[in-house]
Amino acid sequence: MPEIESVLHETRTFPPSEAARKKARLSSLEEYERLYRESIDDPETFFGREAKNLPWIEPFESVLDWSGAPFAKWFSGGKINASAVALDQHLGTPVENKIAFLWEGEPGDTRAITYVELHEEVCQLANVLKGRGVKKGDRVALYMPMIPELVVAVLACARIGAAHSVVFGGFSAHALRERIEDGGCSAVVTADGGYRRGEPLPLKPQVDEAVRGLKAVHTVIVVERCENDIDWNADRDLWYHVAVSEASADCPPEPMDSEDTLFLLYTSGTTGGPKGIQHTTGGYMLGAYLTCKYVFDMQEDDVYWCTADVGWITGHSYIIYGPLSNGVTSVMYEGAPNSPHEGRFWELCQKYGVTIFYTAPTAIRTFMRWGEEHPGKFDLSSLRLLGTVGEPINPEAWMWYHRVIGGERCPILDTWWQTETGSIMLTPLPGITATKPGSATFPFFGVDAAVVDEEGKEVGPNEGGFLVIRKPWPSMLRGIWKNEERYRETYWSKYGDKYFAGDGAKRDEDGYFWIMGRVDDVINVSGHRLSTMEVESALVSHDSVVESAVVSRPDDVTGEAIVAFTTLGPGIEDGDELRSTLMDHVATQIGKLARPAEIRFTDALPKTRSGKIMRRLLRDIASGRETTGDTSTIEDLSVLAKLRGDE
Ligand code: PRX
After folding, report:
1. Helix (H) or strand (E) holding 379
2. Structural domains present in the chain
3. CB-based contact 559:597 (threshold 8 Å)
């Protein structure tokens, strides 16, 4: 498998510090090993016991039913409500008056919300939704900035049993419409806008455009955040603050089957449009709860901050469901890390005394570039654990995070997982695992991960292969919305009995897992998953383009960057103006996050005799590498020479 050959050889090891060991919930290697063995050999006992910590409305009858593989059923017969796991279980306990969120807006406005206050607002919004006819089994789209009302909206949907479908605020109206239509959403919760780098970023106008002519959408609830000018449709739109203040705060949680859908979250795949990853209630909540308990080791006095956006799975599991079910206090921040200055994150860590901090490698690389002097201005001594997620972290960034942010005392938790897995799958545990920079180390409880070859046979130490999971786990996806075939095809067709993650990986001689990036046509730009196909269709939808092939090249900050090789229609002049028009076009079609870093015009694309675009070759060219692959099947070698600039 030449494509997943490993070039990284990292030998540094960092055992958990004495301080980390003293504080951590799990610090005995023997206890950890016993629990891990039990979770693999006897998952029913392990997960059955852990699941009893959740507040079931009716107890479950069985732990796992895998007879309908690849569709798992966890905790059958059990009734539970995710908003009650997050909130109601804390009422009447000392947690009820604890702060759930220390929220900070980009302009510096703040709001501290206790568990009991959050519960009240969730009930009120749930009643507003009910009043508009939204009911159990419906879908509601949320297109919002990072404000507390987004958390309220997620939990209000969960409370009444409507599935939420959060669409990241950086997506375009076009992308939002696609997701609203596919999910069959009947209501949307949004805001007039949100703050980003000092400016209001309008959201409501995008919603208006997205739902134009969509009869199914009868309600749009709008949070007033930026007071930017917006249009109003009195039949459909209502102000959040008006509706909520008039609503009753009495709204009992809907008893949901453990396997009822909790949410849809769209993500990119190799082919076709975005897919609605479907998560259900009991198993997902257990995954979110357990990983927060053991990986982030959440304890009563912790102040936790996950810098992700709720528009991604990380925000779902590690801003909302996991931390709240553990009764912890979280920081939530609306804006950009460099607004109004490059030290904003560290200023917030100091201000709120953050103890656990979770961010993405792309952010860490950006901080490195901005310079040590920014974190250097603030007291970061409250930090005890540092997490990272979203893409492989290069050892240099890992070391910087460890030294500059963690003061060499905080364990680095490099967590590998996916929208599909619902919660963390590979990760060190603080107090237990000796870490190696760049390795996500070992599987979490119940995760039977392996690296296999094309035939599904486990590969030897330091050999590259495909990452698979051999057993079902509670928070695994239950399907792709309305597309059973695509679910089977994407994750289960390659090996039949193993979940195919789509990542290349290796295990070293000590059994550590090293993720080597996607093996499919998914590009990971700043931790955002994009399909090459979607960017290609966006380009081809422009009148001037006849064909395009999109590949990635490595980038020091964003991990990967998008390069689009593009062929124009007859008589169309290329040039910088058209280049930026096409870049803008992709941003309008998908969102700014998909804007190509580079567009290269070409008369033709290199293809095999059967007409397949030779992407590996294009990747080499885009990265400025010598072409190493076999070019003997190329149809017209002069195309290659031209692309390289030899002619
Ligand atoms: O390629 C892996 C990469 O991100 C993909 C999942 O993306 P998404 O569903 O958007 O979820 C991101 C947040 C969970 C994976 O297939 N990835 C995620 N975490 C890591 C990673 N690659 C290497 N190391 C990680 N820690």
Report:
1. none
2. 107-254 (3.40.50.980), 530-644 (3.30.300.30)
3. no
Nearest CA to ligand 1 atom 10: 529
- 505 C-alpha to center of ligand 1: Å? 12
3-state secondary structure 505-563: EEECCCCCEEEEEECCCEEEECCEEEEHHHHHHHHHCCCCEEEEEEEEEEECCCEEEEE
Tell me the C-alpha distance between 317 and 206, whole Å: 26
pLDDT recorded at residue 449: 98
Are the CB atoms for 113 and 148 separated by under 8 Å?
yes
Query: What is the atom index within ligand 1 of the atom nearest the CA of 388?
Result: 26
139 to 79, 146, 282, 492: CA distances (angstroms): 20, 21, 18, 27
Single out the residue of 305, 265, 263, 269 nearest to residue 284, CA to CA: 263
Map 352-366 to HEC letters. HCCCEEEECHHHHHH
Whether residue 102 contacts residue 133, with contact meaning beta carbons closer than 8 Å, is answered with no
- Identify the DSSP state of 591: B
CA distances to 447, 460, 463 from 453, rounded to whole Å, are 19, 10, 9
For a mutational test of ligand 1's pocket, the pick from 389, 423, 500, 526, i.e. the residue with the most ligand atoms closer than 8 A to its C-beta, is: 389
pLDDT in tens, 128-148: 999 999 999 999 999 999 999
Ligand 1 nearest atom to the CA of residue 424, by list position: 14
Give average pLDDT by consecutive 10-residue segment, the chain, 647 residues: 59 90 91 96 98 98 98 98 98 98 98 98 98 98 98 99 97 96 98 95 98 97 98 98 98 98 92 89 98 97 98 98 98 96 98 98 94 98 97 93 97 98 98 96 98 97 96 98 96 97 95 92 89 90 93 93 94 95 95 95 85 85 78 70 68
Please give the structure tokens belonging to residue 60: 């479950």
Both tokens assigned to 59: 């107890």
Q: Which residues pair with 108 in a beta bridge?
A: none
Q: Which residues contact 623 (CB under 8 A, 6 or more apart)?
A: 553, 554
Question: Alpha-carbon distance 218 to 19, whole Å?
Answer: 55
Q: Please say whether the beta carbons of 372 and 348 come within 8 A.
A: no
- 64 touches 472 (CB < 8 A): yes
Distance separating alpha carbons of residues 17 and 424, to the nearest angstrom? 22
How far does residue 79's CA lie from ligand 1's centre (Å)?
A: 31
Ligand 1 atom closest to Cα of 501?
16
> 254: which DSSP letter?
P
> In whole angstroms, what is the distance from residue 223 CA to residue 192 CA?
6
Contact 403, 372 (CB under 8 A): no
Q: Write down the residue that tokens 């912790």 correspond to.
A: 302
User: What is the three-state SS of 468-489?
Assistant: EECCCCCCCCCEECCCHHHHHH
As a residue count, the chain comes to 647
Q: Which ranges of 271-392 would DSSP assign to H, the alpha helix?
A: 282-294, 313-315, 322-325, 344-352, 361-370, 373-376
Question: How does strand 64-65 pair with strand 499-507?
Answer: unpaired
d(CA 128, CA 135): 11
Q: Which residues line ligand 1 (CB under 6 A)?
A: 267, 313-314, 389-392, 414-419, 440, 501-503, 515, 518, 524, 529
Please tell me whether residue 628 adopts helix, strand or coil conformation: coil
Ligand 1 atom showing the smallest separation from residue 517 Cα: 1
